[in-house]
């Protein structure tokens, strides 16, 4: 999601066609719309969700173009259990680059397997720099049997860089969703 100012104030469909004519083939415009000048996507987001994809099978150059290839079998049940230790509001200093406000609310860490594809979805109100890739690096260590859920919880509590700041490669990371707007407040009758 991006926000920008069009000095010519063209209609959305015309602007979308103009932008798509300039963009590389692997980038597309979707859901272009006019917003108030005060709109800022970073502050308007209620939460964001990233997906990290792992190809946990034999070498596959095509699949590993957008996924991390891991040859050893991964224990996704242990990874999912360890990921639950990261859910909630915590100081995530151990899982991100230094930030003056490292407290974030992680709503969900979900690990699933579909054949040889392992996906790790992390949804949070906001993320520190490299936070998802560092979470993935730790969960992969759990999946390999080199860490357990208690070690993940201890790393979170320590606030020192987990695994000495190791990060999973960017190749498997994708921003899946940004949900905008305020959270509905049932106390005020909103739904």
Please name the CATH topology of the largest domain: Alpha-Beta Plaits
Class inferred from helices and paired strands: alpha+beta
CATH class of the largest domain: Alpha Beta
CATH homology-level superfamily of the largest domain: Pseudouridine synthase I, catalytic domain, C-terminal subdomain
Explain the layout of strands and helices.
Blueprint (H helix, E strand, L loop, with lengths): L11 H11 L18 H4 E11 L12 E2 L6 H8 L4 E4 L11 E12 L2 E8 L6 H13 L5 H10 L14 E8 L11
Parallel strand pairs: 1-2
Antiparallel strand pairs: 1-5, 1-6, 3-4, 4-5
Please describe what this structure looks like.
Helix content is 24%, strand content 24%. The protein has 191 residues and is of the alpha+beta class. The chain folds into 2 domains: 1-44, no CATH class; 46-179, Alpha-Beta Plaits, CATH 3.30.70. Strands 1, 2, 3, 4, 5 and 6 form a 6-stranded mixed sheet that branches. The longest helix is centred in the last third of the chain and has 13 residues, at 131-143. The protein is globular, with a radius of gyration of 19 Å. Residues 186-191 have low confidence and may be disordered.
Give a brief description.
The chain is of the alpha+beta class and 191 residues long. It is built from five helices and six strands.
Defining traits:
Alpha-Beta Plaits, 191 residues, globular, alpha+beta, six-stranded mixed sheet, disordered C terminus, single chain, 24% strand
């Amino acid at each position: 999601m991006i926000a920008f100012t069009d000095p010519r104030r063209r209609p959305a469909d015309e602007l979308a066609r103009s932008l798509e004519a300039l963009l590389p083939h692997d980038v597309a415009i979707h859901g272009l719309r006019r917003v108030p000048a005060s709109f800022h996507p970073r502050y308007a987001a209620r939460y964001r969700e990233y997906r990290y994809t792992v190809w946990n099978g034999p070498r596959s150059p095509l699949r590993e173009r957008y996924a991390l290839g891991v040859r050893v079998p991964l224990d996704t049940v242990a990874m999912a259990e360890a990921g639950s230790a990261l859910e909630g509001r915590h100081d995530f200093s151990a899982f991100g680059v230094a930030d003056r406000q490292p407290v974030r609310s992680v709503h969900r860490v979900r690990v699933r397997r579909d054949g040889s594809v392992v996906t790790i979805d992390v949804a949070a109100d906001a993320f520190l720099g490299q936070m998802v890739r560092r979470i993935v690096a730790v969960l992969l260590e759990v999946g390999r049997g080199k860490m357990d859920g208690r070690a993940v919880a201890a790393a979170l509590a320590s606030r020192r860089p987990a695994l000495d700041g190791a990060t999973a490669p960017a190749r498997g990371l994708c921003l899946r969703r940004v949900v905008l707007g305020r959270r509905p407040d049932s106390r005020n009758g909103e739904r």
